[in-house]
Amino acid sequence: MQRRDFFKKLGAAAAVAAVTPTISFAADAKKPSGPNNLSFKAAVDAVTGGKTPVVSSKIKLKVPEIAENGAVVPVTVEVESPMTEADYVKAIHIFATENANTRCIDVHLTPANGKAMFATRIKLGGTQEVATVVELSDGTFITASQSVKVTIGGCG
Amino acid sequence: MGKRKSLIKIKPKKFKDGEIVKVSFMVMHPMETGMRKDKKTKEIIPAKYINKVKFSYNGKVITTMTVWESLSTNPVFTTYMKINGKGNLTVTYTDNTGEVNEHSKKIKPKG
């Protein structure tokens, strides 16, 4: 092997070694690891049992379009329902699609609630979509979602 | 652990029997995700979050909730409830570390 070729190979190997760790590190940083990691699709499947929820205008999902602080984002879910024994909202599930654990809260309601509404405050890791899946008493699932821009550190 | 600070708010304040009122339950809780590091010691702060909340009214369960760590520090749970006579509204909440607490409020409908 000539001296020139040897240096060429050495340079190529060094370049690969320099680039690969940064790539893998960036991929790790994107997905924060938590004890209860769960992707959005897996979370929805766990709730609906494999059924695909239908997008419905019956749900009113109130989330701010721009959240100044990702640690406190108010979420309100209201569903049009008579809330009688025959027809009521069984459960409201709230998801943050890009968090490490996408499930936020499952609320199981009864006709004694009188009105199908639930409000809370959630944490968001960054700009993402907030989704809700609602289970009705006849076993069907409806859904709604809205994107939230989280502006940590100013201009975002 | 000592007793946590918590509060039950009912809106409107004066209500009649059979009326549907808004009920908010607030609790002081760190809701630690288990993913945050202590800045000084560089150690991961262990997870501590509420995982179960139950609203019951005169012994009858109205609403149950399963909670994960994505809820804010000092969470608020707001929902509606139908008033059905005098009694107690009791909120029971459980921690992932096994801490169980309870808060109850007397309900007195007028008229």
Description of the structure:
The complex is a heterodimer of chains A (156) and B (111). With 156 residues, chain A is of the alpha+beta class. In chain A, the strands form two sheets. In chain A, strands 1, 3, 5, 6, 8 and 9 form a six-stranded mixed β-sheet that branches. Chain A is elongated, with a radius of gyration of 23 Å. Chain A folds into two domains: 1-30; 40-150, Immunoglobulin-like (Sandwich), CATH 2.60.40. Chain A starts with a helix and ends in a 6-residue tail after the last strand. Chain A has two helices and nine strands; from the N terminus they run H-H-E-E-E-E-E-E-E-E-E. Chain B is mainly beta and 111 residues long. Chain B has a single domain (6-33, 45-107), classed as Immunoglobulins (Immunoglobulin-like, Sandwich). Chain B is 0% helix and 49% strand. Chain B contains no helices and seven strands. Chain B has strands at 6-11, 20-27, 50-57, 60-67, 76-82, 87-95, 100-107. The N and C termini of chain B lie far apart (41 Å). The chains are: A alpha+beta (156), B mainly beta (111). The A-B interface holds A 32-36, 71-73, 76, 96, 99-110, 112-123 and B 20, 31, 33-35, 47, 57, 60-73, 75-82, 84.
Brief overview:
The complex is a heterodimer of chains A (156) and B (111). Chain A has 156 residues and is α+β, with helices and mostly antiparallel strands.
